[in-house]
Amino acid sequence: MKLEKVAQQPGSVSGPTLLALRGVGKVFSNGVTALSNVELTIREGDFLSLLGPSGCGKSTALRLIAGLSTPTSGLLDWRGSGARDRSNIGDRSNIGFVFQEPTLLPWADVFDNVWLPLRLRGVSRVKAAPTVMEMLARVHLTGFEKAVPRELSGGMKMRVSIARAMVTKPRILLMDEPFAALDEITRFKLNNDLLELWQDQRFTVVFVTHSVFESVFLSNRVVVMAARPGRVFAELAVDAPYPRDEAFRTSPDYAALCRQASDVLIGAINSTAGPHHDGH
Predict the structure, then answer these.
(1) Is the CB of residue 233 less than 8 Å from the CB of residue 224?
(2) Helix count (H) and strand count (E) of the chain?
(3) What pLDDT sits at residue 205?
(4) Is 1.20.1250.20 the CATH classification of the domain at 3-103+172-270?
(5) Distance separating alpha carbons of residues 87 and 22, to the nearest angstrom
(6) Sign of the four-CA dihedral 211, 212, 213, 219
(7) Lower Cβ count inside 10 Å, N or C end of the chain?
(8) What does the CA dihedral 153, 159, 164, 166 come to, rounded to 10 degrees?
(9) What is d(CA 160, CA 167) in angstroms, rounded to the nearest whole number?
């Protein structure tokens, strides 16, 4: 089993193209170039991880996809949207976002926190109840509907955050290092549960992480980014089959895949040249 450096071939890993970043650059007002000429294709059903060191533009790319920021150059091409201009962000209702911090309303119980996106769309509490309860069941929080955030562990708060992001049934879920602050045991459990949810519903995930181990365990594609300027350094296809479980996590195959991804990441960290067009 190996990681393969792959060309951007539509449909070569999963479904048809959902979003293409074409020559995307982002320069902040202080003159810092966060991203330069990013070319990236996200396909329907992908579990794609953006892996790289701090300052390589992973979170900036996620915010551009979410429409929380706009690119300085290039465009985001949402397939099927009919619009291809630089400001095009697709349909916001099709996008879920999970931040590194759970960002829950501290005064609201679990049910009301998850209901919030539907409430903002005018869906009543009664009408939303079946959908909210279904999502709480999927993130293993049945029975905690009336708990408030201060009564929950860090892992449980993140489960609420995931349920809230998924309650609108988005086509794409953006996750910005959601498990970075959690202990290893909780992180492993949430990785397992996230994969279970993804396999069941087959939405598209773009997952930002610093962790080689997490990116290889979760993803069918790993995009390694390099800094100064932020850019795509290499794309790796993870050919391990799903479902992935503890047996995979402790297997020689997984160790070998992580070693290969780590080698590519080290190359990205050591890189000071421009974007690598040959995949090396």
Answers:
(1) yes
(2) 8, 10
(3) 97
(4) no
(5) 13
(6) positive
(7) C
(8) 180
(9) 10
Note the pLDDT of residue 276: 44
Burial classification of residue 50, based on how many CB atoms lie within 10 Å of its CB (0-12 exposed, 13-18 middle, 19 or more buried): buried
* Residue 279 vs residues 8, 51, 225, 235: alpha-carbon distances, Å: 10, 15, 12, 7
Neighbour count for residue 117 (Cβ, 10 Å): 18
pLDDT lower than 70: segments of the chain: 1-14, 80-93, 272-280
pTM: 0.89
Q: How far apart are CA 99 and CA 53, in angstroms?
A: 18
Dihedral (C-alpha) 266, 54, 28, 23: value to the nearest 10 degrees?
40
pLDDT at position 271 is 83
| Angle, CA 65 vertex, CA 31 and CA 233 arms, to 5° | 65
Compute the C-alpha angle 226/232/235, nearest 5°.
110
Which of 117, 115, 172, 173 shows the shortest CA–CA distance to 146? 115
Amino acid identity of residue 261, one-letter, is: A
